[in-house]
Structure formats: structure tokens, C-alpha cells
Design goal:
- It is a single chain.
- The chain is of the alpha/beta class.
- It is 34% helix and 12% strand.
- Strands 7-6-5-4-3-2-1-8-9-10 form a 10-stranded mixed β-sheet.
- Helix 8 runs parallel beside helix 14 and helix 9 packs across helix 14.
- It is globular.
Length: 418
């Protein structure tokens, strides 16, 4: 039987997925009538190019369930850029946003070329400035095309640069390869040397590393630290109950990913000198201290990001593409729909409901406010949609309790020493 959610029905709330795939229509008007309001978007991810110059084995865009990239234009047109700029400004004006973030993404965004990137950034900033909004821009790249031309452009436009790298050569080249099988570590290392030397280091926003439990954790971490990144994001490989990530056996109490991350946490936390920010650890510590999360990876803060595909389609987080074909789609388009229309899309609303959208097993957990059910895409199963716990539940529980207990011991020791 199909079920419609009302906020007053909190005790029995479950979003159902008929057939295990598509979410049941959420009674958004009924929800709004109770006084609940969605949180405005603050981050706009622009897929300015839909193809890539690597063939990474763990890529959720090309290698997993959703293959919609094949139907996308390779490159975002200037007409779509223009409409995107106006829609961002419109949203910022409606919600009185002093600043927003735009992330240039792909595929590989540098394939779009310097001219389109320059045009997009200048156009978006000009439209936003007219409504009094400042736009912070970043780009997430594999680094292969990060040459002097791009660095000068990013320096002139004040674009932050995040680079994807999985650590030392052997670990990185397990997955991040060219289509002919060659590893990309040497090319990415050369690009990072260009970025982190001289005047361009100020552009460096951090490194993104996808965890592979076959790699040595400390060696991976130390290899990343060699580039003096301001931040490191360790990402759990995208998977779910229907398509489990490597080494994660659904239903097993084993914790291979926590076992991999904990030695890094202990080294990071125990360091007496300057240490880079490790976002996963930092977010967990923020949540343990009672503060709100700034990431969708953990915690219960509402998801405040939206994706624009190369054709102008408005989508949810592209990470959902790891779940099933069409999982990120909204059927909204910038040429006819505003970002406010996306805010009240049932699937978007479901990702802003926090604790109300958690499964019973999560609601019964003592760490629910910290874990937050884990990343939304990692909850998916064909039987229950996104209504279960994260496929990484045992790993998250062990990692969070380890950080909590370590933190508590240190606070107790500090109090005892006073």
C-alpha cells in the first residue's frame, strides 16, 4: 500500500518505494502547510563537460548503474551557461544569499577548455553581483590537463582547485588509469607540483582520495601529505546493499573500512605539529561536539547542493547515479524551471528531512545524530529504496565510536590535569 508522509505522522514515518525503485510521492504541500520549509541551495555543481580523459575503475558516473551520461552533450553550451547564471542569481535573490559556491565538475571539467570556463565563471559572477551575491568558484579535476595556461586562468579568476589522487603510485594506479590501462600517477604528480609551487599554491583547495582497503593506509596518507594539501577528503567507494562496495559484505559485522581509516585518524589526531584538515574526521568531531555537519557524508544537516547537467537538466547529487539508472533525475530543466522548483521536488525534500527520513534501525542507534544514516546513496537497496541503514553501517559505527572514545579520554585527561 502506498503511503504519503505528513509531518504530524512522525512516529510511523517511512518513505516507501513501490517496486523497490521509485520513491513514493511525498505530500510536499501537506508538509509545507505544517510550517516546514526547505533550506535554500548553497552549492551549485555544474557539469560543464560530460566525458573524461581517464577510465577510472571506481567511477560512479561511468562504471555504475546510471548510464545517462551517454545521452548528455559533451560540453555545456553558452546558452545553458547564461540560463544557469540567471537561475543562480534568481535563487540567491529570492533567499537573500550573501554568497554561494559554484563547483565546476564533470566528467573532467578541464576538457571544456579555458574559454568556456572563463565565460562561465565571469557570467555567473556578473549575474550574481547584480543581486548582491558573492560567488566562490572551485573546480574538481583529475589534474591531467592542469598546465600553466589553466593555472594562470584560475589565478586570475580566483578559482580553487581540488585534485583527485589516491596516494602512492601503486595505490593510485589501481583505479585511476587511462583507457589503454596506463596509470596516471606520474602525470597527476607533475600537475600537483605545478599547482603547489610558487604563487599557485593559494589556489589549492585539497585532495580527494577514494579508499581502497588493499592499499596501505599510512603510506597513502603520507603520500598525500607530501603535497601539503589544506584538506584531504577520504571517500568511501560508492556502493549499496544491491551493489556492495569492494570488501564490504552486506550483513557482516566486519569493519574493513573503519580498520583502514582508524590508523590514519590516530596519526592525524596525535600529531603535535601542523596537520592538514581531514574532512571526514573533522566533521565527525564537530558532530560529537554538538555542532552541525557541513557535509552530506555524515550528520543530519539538510542537503543544500544541486547539480546542473551539460544539457541544463537539474539533478540531485550525482553520487546517486551509483544506485540505479535515473536515480538522480528530477525531470526539471533550467529553461523552464527555477531552482526553487527543485527545492520542493519530493526526492530533494526527502534529503532535507534529517532524522525523519532515517530507517527504524538508525532511529534506534545511539549515534544517529552523528552518523546521520551515512551518505544517502549508500543506503539504497532494490527492496527498500533508500530506507535502510548505510551499507557501511558497521564501519561507520566503529569509526565514530573510536573517535568519540579517543576524544573523551583526552578531555578527561585534560580535566584531571587542571
Amino acid at each position: 500500500m502506498r503511503r504519503v508522509f505528513h509531518l504530524s505522522d512522525k512516529s510511523n514515518f517511512r518513505l516507501s518505494f513501490p517496486g523497490g525503485v521509485f520513491p513514493e510521492t511525498l505530500d510536499v504541500p501537506g508538509l509545507l502547510s505544517t510550517g516546514w520549509r526547505p533550506a535554500s541551495f548553497r552549492q551549485f555543481i555544474l557539469k560543464i563537460h560530460s566525458r573524461c580523459d581517464l577510465a577510472c575503475r571506481h567511477c560512479y558516473v561511468y562504471e555504475m548503474a546510471d548510464q545517462s551520461w551517454k545521452a548528455q552533450p559533451r560540453r555545456m553550451s553558452t546558452a545553458i551557461v547564461d540560463r544557469t547564471a540567471r537561475r543562480i542569481a534568481e535563487h540567491a535573490l529570492t533567499h537573500e544569499l550573501a554568497e554561494v559556491e559554484v563547483v565546476l565538475h564533470g566528467g573532467e571539467p578541464l576538457l571544456a577548455g579555458p574559454d568556456l570556463i572563463s565565460y562561465a565563471v565571469r557570467t555567473i559572477r556578473r549575474e550574481a553581483a547584480e543581486v548582491g551575491t558573492r560567488v566562490h568558484v572551485g573546480v574538481q579535476t583529475n589534474g591531467l590537463r592542469l598546465d600553466e595556461t589553466y593555472l594562470r586562468l584560475f589565478d586570475a579568476l580566483e578559482i580553487g582547485v581540488g585534485v583527485s589522487m589516491d596516494g602512492y603510485a601503486e595505490g593510485h594506479d589501481r583505479h585511476r588509469r587511462y583507457a589503454d590501462g596506463r596509470g596516471s600517477h606520474a602525470a597527476v604528480t607533475a600537475a600537483l607540483r605545478r599547482l603547489t609551487s610558487g604563487p599557485y599554491h593559494r589556489l589549492f583547495s585539497g585532495l580527494l582520495c577514494t579508499v581502497d582497503v588493499r592499499n596501505d593506509p599510512i603510506a597513502t596518507y603520507e603520500a598525500l601529505l607530501e603535497f601539503d594539501p589544506p584538506a584531504i577528503d577520504f571517500l568511501l567507494p560508492h556502493g549499496n546493499w544491491s551493489t556492495p562496495p569492494p570488501g564490504r559484505v552486506p550483513g557482516s559485522a566486519d569493519t574493513p573500512y573503519a580498520d583502514w581509516l582508524i590508523p590514519i585518524f590516530d596519526l592525524w589526531y596525535g600529531s603535535t605539529g601542523h596537520q592538514t584538515e581531514v574532512r571526514l574526521f573533522g566533521e565527525i568531531m564537530r558532530l560529537l561536539a554538538g555542532r552541525a555537519s557541513r557535509s552530506e557524508t555524515v550528520g543530519l544537516s539538510p542537503a543544500r547542493m544541486v547539480v546542473v547537467e551539460t544539457d541544463g537538466s537539474i539533478e540531485q547529487s550525482d553520487i546517486l547515479k551509483s544506485s540505479y539508472h535515473g536515480a538522480a533525475a528530477t525531470r526539471l530543466h533550467l529553461l523552464r524551471d527555477s531552482f526553487d522548483a527543485a527545492l520542493t521536488h519530493p526526492a530533494m525534500v526527502a534529503r532535507q528531512l534529517g532524522e525523519l527520513a532515517l530507517a527504524p534501525v538508525c532511529l534506534a542507534c545511539d549515534l544517529r545524530s552523528v552518523c546521520g544514516g551515512g551518505l544517502y546513496a549508500h543506503r539504497y537497496s532494490e527492496a527498500e529504496g533508500f530506507l535502510g541503514a548505510s551499507v557501511y553501517c558497521p564501519d561507520l559505527y566503529r569509526l565514530i565510536t573510536h573517535i568519540r572514545d579517543r576524544f573523551a579520554r583526552d578531555v578527561a585527561a585534560l580535566k584531571a590535569s587542571r
